[in-house]
Specification:
Number of strands: 15
Number of domains: 2
CATH class of the largest domain: Alpha Beta
Helix content: 40-55%
Number of helices: 16
Strand content: 5-15%
Distance between the termini: 44 Å
CATH architecture of the largest domain: 3-Layer(aba) Sandwich
Shape: globular
Strand order of the largest sheet: 4-10-9-8-7-5-6
């Protein structure tokens, strides 16, 4: 059995602390969990959240997640449930589906997947059979676990061929993609990654897929929020199936969704339920509807474009600090940087940065065996930070990695920046 490290109970705030009423009920009922949740809220408010896959949902999304729909079992789809009393569940899911279709210009949407990985699993289940060949970005170049990792269902059930990037530019090597497609004749081609900061050429991927008679699956988990805001090109006109998450830049609840044309709608729906999932999490589905509604506003479009502008500013400032930024910049919210020129590897850099209150990931670099750091600007942009703040963050990065200041001073500087831009003001 794995060894569990004991966790000290979080400090519960005194009764006069400003705490939402529903949290007061939790603190009375279960002060240990209540304290842990409040401590997490404090951590998020006093550190910089730079993990590319994270963001802050709106209070409205949080309210939907804590709604009475959490109590409802609703296996099936609107109008065809396996349980009674689903009138409001049907209304919530119908609204989420309509909003997703309108937001992304899709003919069909399934909003039930519990995660991005669940969405990809369902897409594979709808289109493939065990043993089929799939072409996807190789894991060392930024491919996701569902793109053929040996420990993942994808690597166990399907034969994956991995394409990579040009060693000089760091950009996808489309000539290699085409050559591999011709040689391996895959049943499906997957475009998408977790750490590629540029836009895929969806039209070219479509052309390659058509040449070899393959389905095209776009794994758009990371750029989907940018697509919603018009800050990134959409794969919907080109891909047979688009898989995505509803958190990350989209600022919805943690979950997944699938978009496709009408000709694949029934196969996708059956692959989600009953093949890969049971009852939908209806409170999460309602929260997805809220997020889709928010993403359809002009204010969200402004936000999405700011996320990209901030990522570009951060990439340029990191280069000025001595980091090597892969592909020379970014088109998205993602920045991948190599701290090697500063004398440390990605893991050491992450440890020093996290100790100073800057939370981020490591990732594979598209060359050699070294690891770099992956960061994103979605959460800090939600907090209202600007391009000048991105320069400040890059300066803090440089100081932390080079150990120019002690950790206590750096953490104080990070906390001051975070507290000037609270995730939930008031």
């Amino acid at each position: 059995m794995p060894v569990t490290t004991p966790v000290a109970p979080a400090t519960v705030p005194p009764p006069d602390t400003a705490v939402p009423q529903d949290f007061r009920a939790l603190l009375r009922q279960d002060p240990e969990i209540g304290g842990i949740l409040l401590a997490e809220a404090g951590r998020q408010a006093t550190t910089l959240q730079l993990i590319a896959a994270e963001n802050f949902t709106s209070p409205a999304v949080l309210a939907a997640l804590g709604s009475p729909l959490a109590n409802k079992y609703a296996e099936g789809y609107p109008g065809a449930r396996h349980h009674g009393g689903c009138e409001q569940a049907d209304a919530a899911e119908g609204l989420a589906v309509r909003r997703a279709m309108e937001l992304f210009g899709a003919e069909h949407a399934n909003v039930q997947p519990h995660s991005g990985s669940s969405a990809v699993l369902a897409a594979y289940a709808a289109l493939l059979r065990p043993g089929d060949t799939v072409l996807a970005m190789g894991l060392p170049y930024g491919g996701h676990l569902t793109h053929g990792a040996p420990g993942n269902f994808s690597g166990r059930w399907f034969e994956f061929a991995g394409y990579g990037v040009d060693p000089d530019s760091g950009l996808i090597d489309y000539a290699q993609v085409r050559a591999l497609a011709r040689a391996r004749r895959p049943k499906a081609i997957v475009c998408g990654s977790i750490s590629y900061p540029r836009h895929p050429d969806y039209e070219l991927f479509r052309d390659i897929a058509d040449e070899v008679g393959a389905y095209l699956i776009a794994d758009a988990a990371h750029p989907m929020g940018l697509i919603a805001g018009g800050a990134a090109p959409s794969p919907v006109p080109y891909a047979d199936v688009v898989c995505a998450t509803t958190h990350k830049v989209l600022r919805g609840p943690r979950g997944g969704m699938i978009l496709c044309g009408v000709e694949l709608a029934e196969r996708i729906d059956r692959a989600v339920f009953p093949f890969t999932q049971g009852g939908a999490q209806m409170h999460t589905v309602a929260a997805k509807a809220v997020a889709f509604g928010e993403a359809a506003t002009p204010a969200y479009a402004v936000y999405a474009h700011r996320v990209v502008a901030h990522a570009r500013a951060l990439a340029a400032a990191l280069e000025a600090e001595g980091f090597e930024v892969t592909t020379g910049g970014t088109d998205t919210h993602i920045v991948v940087a190599d701290p090697g020129p500063l004398g440390v590897d990605g893991r050491t850099a992450r440890e020093r940065l996290c100790a100073a209150g800057m939370v981020l990931d490591t990732c594979a670099l598209p060359y050699g065996d070294a690891r770099g750091i992956r960061l994103g600007t979605a959460a800090v942009t939600t907090q209202g930070m600007d391009e000048d703040d991105m320069v400040r963050i890059a300066g803090l990065f440089g100081a932390a990695v080079r150990e120019e200041r002690d950790t206590g001073r750096l953490r104080a500087d990070v906390r001051a920046l975070a507290e000037r831009n609270p995730p939930y003001p008031g």
